[in-house]
Amino acid sequence: MEESIRIDNRGDFGIWAIEVAKQIVGEQGFDLAKAARDGTEDAVRETGNALGQAIINALMQVYDGLLEGAPD
């Protein structure tokens, strides 16, 4: 998610969203599934929160990109 991309239309946004979702699920989803299988309630809560934070970070990234160049 470190690369800059240009989103000019709805299709570009959809492609970005799919790629980011795959990345988040790949990174965070396994940890959450493992915690649900083997961990404590606290571990499930912690990994669930990490998944939520990854989603928030992705949404904030695109929001910040929308603000670049916008008039103050």
Describe this structure as you would to a colleague.
With 72 residues, the chain is an all-alpha fold. 78% of the residues lie in helices and 0% in strands. The protein contains two helices and no strands. It has helices spanning 10-38, 41-67. The two termini are 26 Å apart. The mean pLDDT is 87.
Please compute the radius of gyration using only Cα atoms: 15 Å
**Order of SSEs, N→C?**
HH
SS strand fraction = under 5%
Number of strands: 0
The gist of it:
With 72 residues, the protein is mainly α. Helix content is 78%, strand content 0%. It has helices spanning 10-38, 41-67.
Layout of helices and strands:
Layout: H1 10-38, H2 41-67
Helix pairs in contact: 1-2
Descriptive keywords:
72 residues; 0% strand; 2 helices; mainly alpha
